[in-house]
Amino acid sequence: MTTTDSRPPARPGRFRDELIQPFLVLTAVVGTAVQWPGAPIAYRPLALPLFVLVSIAALASLLPWTRLTPGAQIAAMSAYLLLGALLMPLAHQTIGVLFPYVAAVAAGLKLASRKAAAAIAITGALVAAFATWAVGQFSPALPQWPVWLALTVAMPVAIGISHHDRLDAVRSADLAAEEARRARASEAREAALEERGRIAREIHDVLGHSLSGIALQLDMADALRDSGRDDEATAAIRRARAIAVDSISETRRAVHALREDTLPLPETLRRLAEHAGVGFAIIGEAGPVGAEATHTMVRVSQEALTNAAKYAPGAARDLRLAFTADQVRLTVHNGPATGPRHTGPAESSGVGLVGMRERAALLGGTLQAGPADGGGWTVELELPR
């Protein structure tokens, strides 16, 4: 049988509730002390020490009991209620009759064991009933409470137990809310770390491919200049610069997309298609797609549309996004070229479909690119949902 009085405050409303017990205790102590000189008290030499002791016990019950052992708490509460029960018939015409009732409430409120609280309350009621009967027998001229009324001393323990349970429930709810808040904070920290990892990998891919392209163009420019082909060397240097500019832009876009990633994949691709002036269609019932898969599909769409514009100018282009139960498939198709091919610097992201194929493999998917039936080119990316 364990008891405790170390429960922390659960809510501001608990402070208001706990004012009731101090008010009742102070009312009983002060009211009885004021009434004592003129009230008909039975056996004053016995009643006065009982009143002093029960007042001390009542005031002590208002203090925290965190340093008391469970056995000491039960003993202290038993003494409080039994002293009040003995005083009840001796000072029944004073407000001191409140002591056993307030003690019963305190037993239910402060003791964690319901059995201990109920046992103390029942014992107090029996003691009050026996003391009432005994005073009535030895002092028949003194008005006295009925014996059955003394038995009601045990009833307020139910109020204390109910209040105890309510406070425990409120405290448990507060603890659960605090645990939920900590869990959300932990999930947010984990998401932030995961996002940083994605940003680092994406920037690594962008810079790795773009720096390789820049180095290749500069080596070519150096070789062309040594051969006296200055115009071609200058063009290679310009291509290297274009790759560097595109790399910076793509890095910024990757960081922004990974940090802001607020739009679902269908809406993101719809806006991309509208911006590029190409067709867009969704097949199947759209559903949630992970952040990594979403970003990869957006990047593949951008790369494929850029390549189509460069290598098949004037060709019709379209995006299709198909959802199945366990995967999502992106198809970017362009028809045959209808205009002259661009000969200027590359305008792609600098990563290329080779890098996207590697990213798809890391996500457990596949990327295929090749000629389409009837002419044109098709890029198809499949990723698990």
TrEMBL record:
It holds the Pfam family HATPase_c. CDD domains: HATPase_UhpB-NarQ-NarX-like. Its EC number is 2.7.13.3. It catalyses: ATP + protein L-histidine = ADP + protein N-phospho-L-histidine. Residues 195-263 form the Signal transduction histidine kinase subgroup 3 dimerisation and phosphoacceptor domain. Residues 297-384 form the Histidine kinase/HSP90-like ATPase domain. GO terms for molecular function: kinase activity. The chain crosses the membrane at residues 20-39, 46-65, 77-104, 116-136, 142-161. Keywords: ATP-binding, Kinase, Membrane, Nucleotide-binding, Phosphoprotein, Transferase, Transmembrane, Transmembrane helix, Two-component regulatory system. InterPro entries: HATPase_C_sf, HATPase_dom, Sensor_HK_TwoCompSys, Sig_transdc_His_kin_sub3_dim/P. It is an enzyme of class 2 (transferase). This is histidine kinase. It comes from Amycolatopsis samaneae.
